[in-house]
Amino acid sequence: MAPQSRYWLALAVMVGLADQVIKGLVQALMPYGQTIPLTPFFNWGHWWNTGAAFSFLADSGGWQRYLFLCLTGIAAIVLTFLLCRPRPRLEALGYSLMLGGALGNGIDRLARGYVVDYLDIYWREWHWPAFNLADIALFLGVITFAMAALHERPSPGCPSDGMDAQNPPVRDMTLFGRLSPVLGCLLALTAGGLTTLSAAPFTLWWLGPVAVALVYVGIHALTPAQAALRGWCYGVGLFGSGTSWVFVAIHDYGDTGALLALFLTGVFVASLALFYAVPFWLYRRVTGPRLAFLSFAGAWVLSEWLRTWLFTGFPWLLLGTSQVDSPLAAWAPVGGVYFLSLITALTGTLGVELLRRRWWAAAPIAALWLTPLALPSQWTSPAGEPLRVALLQGNLAQSIKWTPEGQREAVNIYTLLARKQPDELDLMVWPEAALPMFEEKARPILERVQSNLSPDTALLTGILQRDGGDNYNGVIGLGNAEGQYRKVRLVPFGEYLPLKRLFADTIAFFDLPMPTMTPGAEAQGPIHAAGTTIGNAICYEIIYADRVAEQARDAELLLTVSNDTWFGRSIGPLQHLQMARLRALENGRYLIRATSNGVTAIVDPQGRVMARAPQFQATSLRGEVLPMVGNTPFTRTGSWPTWLLAALLVLPGWRFNTRRSG
């Protein structure tokens, strides 16, 4: 194809995609399952063949919107292929498939509009097969272009990956010539969206290594500032798609307008993205291309470690969390979530080396993915008879929870649910702050409920406590139970306000309808209930792997209570459940999870959900769990061996002359 034709086609694709990108980004920021009306300007691209091929994703609610953003990034790669010099036959095949996919979408839209509206013929039964075939053809066209580009070598005059002031050029280090910084940022933005898709509720775990590979490709051809920008773009893609539930919390429950909530969500996302920008800047500053597949994977895990504790930490959407359902899951009891992140990152970087025809990379990839077959399937053993448990889910609206009406409603709901439970219970659990009042006011109500239960039944509930001038978020036991637990890891801006003197006036909207909390003591023992010992994690704490491991060392069962009402109908509760599942797998313990409106669940020591209650219903979940004894390697050591290993992997790529690269 003539160069002029390439540029015209590239321009056509860019125009069609630009229309869809605007719409898709706006839609992606909306709460899960909701859409907004858009102006005709944002809709004209629907009738542009190229735009039509992607527009169905932007029109759909839920996971399709996130997939749309990822496919838009893939389309950016296609533009690169169009401006390269791929093999003519593969190029022709790719064009044919893309054209067929685009035309198929156009015909499908025409049929739905004309056949249904004017001829009154039922087209819907043919719609989805035609639509899916068209999309498959389009996707195959993209893959074909990728195959064509893999046959190309970087242009002799263009510096390739690894060229800087101190290091000689490394030949054939990129897949398709030199990546421009702009395209690299687009790939990183796409990679962030792919990481979200790898996690719950999408669970496309195989996208985790792909995301790392997209960020890794060509990074050593960048200056430190460009590497920081790429890392920031990855963070924006990750948190912009994966933590969009922040908008729900601020807008729906923080009494802010949509524009202000959107702005604050953007600030939140942009700030979190710095957790990748700064480490990537430092990584590019101090390392070279030597053994980069090791040093980059190590730096990735160190960036997650930094995100876990700095400014109280936010270890949400760690890369390894997505692997709870993958063949790598057997590594979790050995090294925990950060070890899963390290293996996933290594798979991505080694995969790039393999695509560069460095066939030796296949051996370590095979070792990482096949070794789990030889690992024990169970590291712990049962410690007694099964316990019969009931988890109550009140589904009280957050908008009224902290009002007098909400207090009365909570008492009525949980009292009624407790009466419906059978007498043969060992343990009944109410969620976090089930009764929206302090313990001194709630205790008479709880004792009345306990008096109607069997003497052998233990009642555990999340409760607000007041001790002098301090307020705590805790769990207490009644009946056949002894001990209490107070939450240690508090939610920034939700349960306390960081740097309050500095920001109190400007972010007063973060004062949620709950008293300011004080963290509990770091060293707290388990609760003894129903003849077993229970390690506790309240809500947000379950995402801290090492905190849960500390509790698991002296416990036979894990309990987490949560109020996920703040998430609304977003993907947040499903992400939260996935992290809880990984904690059960890491420590070889049954985990019971009681929430206000979902997802209430019982998880076995392999991280599998044995039973779950439907979301957004006042209901209860009954089942059996086994107390477990013995500790997994991760329970005994925690994450520090993985963090140390990650730091050691960075050392081979260390460049002692750290003057700015060219």
How does this model look, in words?
Strand 3 (427-430), helix 16 and strand 4 form a beta-alpha-beta unit. The chain is globular, with a radius of gyration of 27 Å. The protein is an alpha/beta fold and 662 residues long. It starts with a helix and ends in a 12-residue tail after the last helix. The chain has helices spanning 3-28, 49-59, 63-83, 88-119, 124-150, 181-198, 207-216, 224-242, 245-253, 258-286, 292-309, 332-355, 362-370, 398-401, 404-419, 439-451, 500-503, 545-552, 572-587, 633-637, 640-650, and strands at residues 381-382, 387-393, 427-430, 458-467, 470-479, 481-482, 484-486, 527-529, 532-538, 557-562, 591-595, 601-603, 609-612, 619-625, 628-629. It contains 21 helices and 15 strands. Helix 2 (49-59) packs antiparallel against helix 3 (63-83) and helix 2 packs across helix 4 (88-119). 52% of the residues are buried. Strands 6-8-9-10-11-12-13 form a 7-stranded mixed sheet, covered by helices on one side. Strands 7-5-4-3-2-14 form a 6-stranded mixed sheet. Strands 1-15 form a two-stranded antiparallel sheet.
- This entry's quaternary arrangement is single chain
Q: Overall pLDDT, averaged?
A: 79
Q: How many helix segments?
A: 21
Helix content: 40-55%
Percentage of residues in strands: 5-15%
Poorly predicted regions: 1-66, 79-87, 112-131, 149-177, 509-515
Biggest sheet descriptor:
7 strands, mixed
Instruction: Give the radius of gyration.
Output: 27 Å
State the strand order across the main sheet: 6-8-9-10-11-12-13
Total strand count, please? Answer: 15
Beginning-to-end CA distance, first to last residue: 35 Å
| Class inferred from helices and paired strands | alpha/beta
